[in-house]
């Protein structure tokens, strides 16, 4: 892309304080967005994909100035958004528009479609009613409705048509950036694809940049040039959509992609993370935030077991930590007392626990074996905390000590592009110095 | 693929013939379900797929009397559950079947869970409604149920309240409540629509294991990916009618009704029609083929009368579409040329299919859908 980006985000943080008591003492912080940097080039479609709680919507709202960032900076057309005042602020509000998931939230049921679409024009100072009406009729046609629809009310339209109306409302003030927050999540598949086609077409026709925020990889795949994958407030991978989705480098991206069912009913395998529990964003895991769920978490250097055994050990450890163990693997303190042992909690021994977590066989590594056996015995006795501590002490991964920096994604085989974005995962190496990785590392490589 | 429970194999668990539900509105009668017939076998997962307004939810709700009458009117030639007619039952009789032998799960688990009661109480309550067991025995059963639906540390969590669980876990709880009466049929209406993909994946695993235990599932969804992941058979609905039905591999391998094809196309990475080519979404006709107003292949014969009869459309015996072009006088080849399937191995199936002989033009194989 040439020219300066229309929107540039640097090390953006948005924390929400958790307060308690009359004095609203801060007892913690939800780190909804925790150090995010990206650029939106003019006329491009950038996707932010992530699950609920990843911080993608907060990021979008902060970009639009709807939320005050806790730290970091959003620049729009070179100017810091938080410093805009007066006319500049008004201009920014015109040039950056939002489309929300549910068009009913964006449309006043008592306003005709014409009034709704004309409202932004009026607010931004177009007082000539006749000209407003002409512009509205033109815009309605551009979004696939008719000029006659201006006199009708929102309830007379289907969900997809209402979304067209809210697109018209965003489009009418000729913005440079549209933030589309789950624009099609409430719509049926065929309507979804029409709305995405429409957004795509107006983006090209009017050279408007679109920031898509979605949990739906189909939406991202279809509409975005580049994608950034968010997990617990951070961007873990980014790059050209085609290469990231075809060849995901971050384990989280892989889990996300493999969790989406294939359209081929003979291929029914669904991917899964190591553990299912999403950590609390007020207390994110140390190091790489994905490590307790990561199927590819790095084993301790001094551990000599096979890869599959390590995976079982890591699964054991982080399941215990997350409280996810199958019932068969946890002793039942209630039933220990009194009864002669052949009731519900019967015969749980270290061996049954180990069978339940797939670590029945003796491990070749004596230290690992001792730790697994200790933890299993503690669990059999119902002491989850002791098991957790034992496993945490014995099997510490570099992934929990060290926060991965963004490094170049491995180049696609046979691809012409020099780089295809960045990934924040220690499996792909650690960058020696922070300076080696530029904040927005998905442009071209240095040298 | 279907695992069967004991019992006569010949009678399906649920058999529905010509179900019609119309709803009185200000503008006259709305024919929400307009002549729907299908079976659900034991241990089978049947998916009703369609867009909002296609009648898929109303179909399910009509079966168990969940549609308020009036304003609705439900009629059918037959609705038989386990060999017995349920259509003419009283509300009380229906209530005992619904819940115990047929259970519902909805999109929003909050609708099934009471926020002011601990989850253990809610699960034991539903166990004790259906079965005369002591409180402590019911509590033991509740623990088993929570384990079965994959709630970790089930015993500890009996005393937690619904809001202390994540959305995915709440849906598991709602499923546990539904399974409390050990139902033969679980009707699940968009059960994964409100959850993240990683959570959805685990819920789909859970549905598979429920079917593995012998319960049949009638799953309502708008999401073809969910269908591909769990269905044994598929019913595609449009405008209150079933337009295509068949084994999931056959329907996904050779989507044959023009509507099914349009649905599949919307998942593809097409360049998309320009705005002018956008199909007009006018009124859905109330007779003949309901899709004809949008159908690129519509002809005069599509209008009037009942919906077109079902014609076999592929090698799979049970794969049929309600489209005049597949009839004796029709020529389906232009429709077949449109078909795009997400499945790679179409060629093999086509070589077995009898229809291939009439139209020698094999449908070009679509590109494999990337995961």
UniProtKB/TrEMBL annotation, chain A:
<dbReference type="GO" id="GO:0005524">
    <property type="term" value="F:ATP binding"/>
</dbReference>
<dbReference type="GO" id="GO:0015833">
    <property type="term" value="P:peptide transport"/>
</dbReference>
<feature type="region of interest" description="Disordered">
    <location>
        <begin position="263"/>
        <end position="288"/>
    </location>
</feature>
<dbReference type="InterPro" id="IPR013563">
    <property type="entry name" value="Oligopep_ABC_C"/>
</dbReference>
<feature type="compositionally biased region" description="Basic and acidic residues">
    <location>
        <begin position="406"/>
        <end position="415"/>
    </location>
</feature>
<keyword id="KW-0547">Nucleotide-binding</keyword>
<dbReference type="InterPro" id="IPR050319">
    <property type="entry name" value="ABC_transp_ATP-bind"/>
</dbReference>
<dbReference type="InterPro" id="IPR003439">
    <property type="entry name" value="ABC_transporter-like_ATP-bd"/>
</dbReference>
<keyword id="KW-0067">ATP-binding</keyword>
<feature type="region of interest" description="Disordered">
    <location>
        <begin position="325"/>
        <end position="349"/>
    </location>
</feature>
<dbReference type="Pfam" id="PF00005">
    <property type="entry name" value="ABC_tran"/>
</dbReference>
<comment type="similarity">
    <text>Belongs to the ABC transporter superfamily.</text>
</comment>
<keyword id="KW-0813">Transport</keyword>
<dbReference type="Pfam" id="PF08352">
    <property type="entry name" value="oligo_HPY"/>
</dbReference>
<dbReference type="InterPro" id="IPR027417">
    <property type="entry name" value="P-loop_NTPase"/>
</dbReference>
<dbReference type="GO" id="GO:0055085">
    <property type="term" value="P:transmembrane transport"/>
</dbReference>
<dbReference type="InterPro" id="IPR003593">
    <property type="entry name" value="AAA+_ATPase"/>
</dbReference>
<feature type="region of interest" description="Disordered">
    <location>
        <begin position="406"/>
        <end position="447"/>
    </location>
</feature>
<dbReference type="InterPro" id="IPR017871">
    <property type="entry name" value="ABC_transporter-like_CS"/>
</dbReference>
<feature type="domain" description="ABC transporter">
    <location>
        <begin position="7"/>
        <end position="257"/>
    </location>
</feature>
<dbReference type="GO" id="GO:0016887">
    <property type="term" value="F:ATP hydrolysis activity"/>
</dbReference>
<protein>
    <submittedName>
        <fullName>Peptide/nickel transport system ATP-binding protein</fullName>
    </submittedName>
</protein>
Automatic annotation (TrEMBL), chain B:
<dbReference type="GO" id="GO:0015413">
    <property type="term" value="F:ABC-type nickel transporter activity"/>
</dbReference>
<protein>
    <recommendedName>
        <fullName>Nickel import system ATP-binding protein NikD</fullName>
        <ecNumber>7.2.2.11</ecNumber>
    </recommendedName>
</protein>
<feature type="region of interest" description="Disordered">
    <location>
        <begin position="327"/>
        <end position="371"/>
    </location>
</feature>
<dbReference type="GO" id="GO:0015833">
    <property type="term" value="P:peptide transport"/>
</dbReference>
<dbReference type="GO" id="GO:0005524">
    <property type="term" value="F:ATP binding"/>
</dbReference>
<keyword id="KW-1003">Cell membrane</keyword>
<feature type="domain" description="ABC transporter">
    <location>
        <begin position="14"/>
        <end position="264"/>
    </location>
</feature>
<dbReference type="InterPro" id="IPR013563">
    <property type="entry name" value="Oligopep_ABC_C"/>
</dbReference>
<comment type="subunit">
    <text>The complex is composed of two ATP-binding proteins (NikD and NikE), two transmembrane proteins (NikB and NikC) and a solute-binding protein (NikA).</text>
</comment>
<dbReference type="Pfam" id="PF00005">
    <property type="entry name" value="ABC_tran"/>
</dbReference>
<keyword id="KW-0406">Ion transport</keyword>
<dbReference type="InterPro" id="IPR050388">
    <property type="entry name" value="ABC_Ni/Peptide_Import"/>
</dbReference>
<dbReference type="GO" id="GO:0005886">
    <property type="term" value="C:plasma membrane"/>
</dbReference>
<keyword id="KW-0472">Membrane</keyword>
<dbReference type="Pfam" id="PF08352">
    <property type="entry name" value="oligo_HPY"/>
</dbReference>
<dbReference type="InterPro" id="IPR027417">
    <property type="entry name" value="P-loop_NTPase"/>
</dbReference>
<keyword id="KW-0813">Transport</keyword>
<dbReference type="InterPro" id="IPR003593">
    <property type="entry name" value="AAA+_ATPase"/>
</dbReference>
<keyword id="KW-1278">Translocase</keyword>
<dbReference type="InterPro" id="IPR003439">
    <property type="entry name" value="ABC_transporter-like_ATP-bd"/>
</dbReference>
<dbReference type="GO" id="GO:0016887">
    <property type="term" value="F:ATP hydrolysis activity"/>
</dbReference>
<keyword id="KW-0547">Nucleotide-binding</keyword>
């Amino acid at each position: 892309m040439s020219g300066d980006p229309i929107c540039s985000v640097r090390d953006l943080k948005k924390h929400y304080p958790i307060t308690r008591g009359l004095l609203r003492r801060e007892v913690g912080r939800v780190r909804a967005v925790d150090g995010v940097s990206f650029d939106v080039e003019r006329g491009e479609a950038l996707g932010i994909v992530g699950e609920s709680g990843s911080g993608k919507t907060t990021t979008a709202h902060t970009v639009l100035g709807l939320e005050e960032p806790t730290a970091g900076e959003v620049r729009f057309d070179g100017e810091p958004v938080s410093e805009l005042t007066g006319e500049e602020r008004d201009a920014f509000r015109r040039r950056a528009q939002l489309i929300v998931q549910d068009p009913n939230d964006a449309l006043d049921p008592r306003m005709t479609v014409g009034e709704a679409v004309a409202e932004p024009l009026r607010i931004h100072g177009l007082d000539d009613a006749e000209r407003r009406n002409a512009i509205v009729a033109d815009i309605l046609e551009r979004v696939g409705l008719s000029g006659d629809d201006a006199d009708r009310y929102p309830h007379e339209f289907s969900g997809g048509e209402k979304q067209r109306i809210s697109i018209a409302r965003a489009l009418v003030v000729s913005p440079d950036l549209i933030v589309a927050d789950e624009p099609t999540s409430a719509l049926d598949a065929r309507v979804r694809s029409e709305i995405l086609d429409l957004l795509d077409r107006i983006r090209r026709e009017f050279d408007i940049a679109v920031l898509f925020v979605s949990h739906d990889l189909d939406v991202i795949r279809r509409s975005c040039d580049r994608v950034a994958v968010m997990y617990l407030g951070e961007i873990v991978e980014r790059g050209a959509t085609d290469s990231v989705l075809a060849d995901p480098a971050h384990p989280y991206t892989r889990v996300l992609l493999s969790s989406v069912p294939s359209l081929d009913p003979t291929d029914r395998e669904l991917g899964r993370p190591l553990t299912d529990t999403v950590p609390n964003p007020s207390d994110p895991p140390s190091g790489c935030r994905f490590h307790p769920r990561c199927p590819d978490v790095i084993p301790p250097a001094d551990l000599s077991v096979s890869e599959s055994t390590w995976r079982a050990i890591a699964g054991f450890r982080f399941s215990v930590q997350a409280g996810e163990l199958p019932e068969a693997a946890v002793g039942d303190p209630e039933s220990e007392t009194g009864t002669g042992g052949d009731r519900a909690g019967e015969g749980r021994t270290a061996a049954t626990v180990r069978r339940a977590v797939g670590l029945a066989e003796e491990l070749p590594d004596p230290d690992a074996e001792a730790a697994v056996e200790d933890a299993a015995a503690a669990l059999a006795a119902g002491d989850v905390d002791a098991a957790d501590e034992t496993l945490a002490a014995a099997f510490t991964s570099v992934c929990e000590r060290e926060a991965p920096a963004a490094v170049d994604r491995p180049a696609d085989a046979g691809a012409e592009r020099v780089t295809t974005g960045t990934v924040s995962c220690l499996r792909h190496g650690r960058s020696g110095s922070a300076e080696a990785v530029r904040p927005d590392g998905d442009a071209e490589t240095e040298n | 693929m279907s695992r069967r429970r004991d019992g006569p194999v010949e009678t399906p668990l649920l058999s529905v013939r010509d179900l019609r539900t119309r709803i009185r509105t200000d503008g006259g009668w709305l024919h929400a379900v307009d002549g729907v017939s299908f079976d659900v076998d034991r241990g089978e997962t049947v998916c009703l797929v369609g867009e909002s307004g296609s009648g898929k939810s109303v179909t399910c709700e009509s079966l168990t009397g969940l549609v308020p009458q009036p304003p609705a009117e439900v009629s059918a030639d037959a609705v038989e559950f386990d060999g017995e007619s349920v259509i003419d039952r009283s509300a009380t009789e229906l209530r005992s079947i619904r819940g115990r032998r047929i259970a519902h799960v909805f999109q929003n688990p909050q609708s099934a869970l009471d926020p002011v009661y601990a989850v253990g109480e809610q699960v034991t309550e539903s166990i004790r409604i259906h079965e005369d067991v002591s409180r402590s025995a019911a509590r033991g059963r509740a623990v088993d149920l929570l384990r079965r639906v994959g709630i970790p540390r089930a015993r500890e969590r009996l005393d937690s309240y619904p809001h202390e669980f994540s959305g995915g876990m709440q849906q598991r709880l709602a499923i546990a409540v539904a399974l409390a009466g050990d139902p033969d049929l679980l009707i699940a209406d968009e059960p994964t629509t409100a959850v993240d993909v990683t959570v959805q994946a685990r819920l789909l695993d859970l549905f598979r294991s429920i079917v593995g235990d012998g319960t049949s599932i009638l799953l309502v969804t708008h999401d073809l990916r969910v269908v591909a992941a769990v269905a044994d058979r598929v019913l595609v609905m449009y405008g209150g009618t079933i337009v295509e039905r068949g084994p999931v591999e056959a329907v996904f391998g050779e989507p044959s009704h023009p509507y099914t094809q349009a649905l599949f196309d919307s998942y593809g990475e097409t360049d998309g029609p320009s705005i002018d080519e956008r199909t007009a979404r006018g009124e859905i006709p109330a007779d003949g083929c309901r899709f004809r107003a949008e159908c690129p292949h519509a002809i005069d014969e599509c209008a009037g009368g009942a919906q077109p009869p079902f014609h076999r459309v592929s090698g799979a015996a049970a794969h049929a579409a309600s489209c005049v072009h597949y009839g004796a006088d029709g020529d389906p080849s232009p429709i077949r040329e449109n078909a795009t399937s997400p499945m790679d191995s179409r060629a093999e199936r086509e070589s077995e299919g009898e229809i291939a002989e009439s139209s020698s033009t094999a449908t070009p194989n679509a590109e494999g859908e990337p995961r």
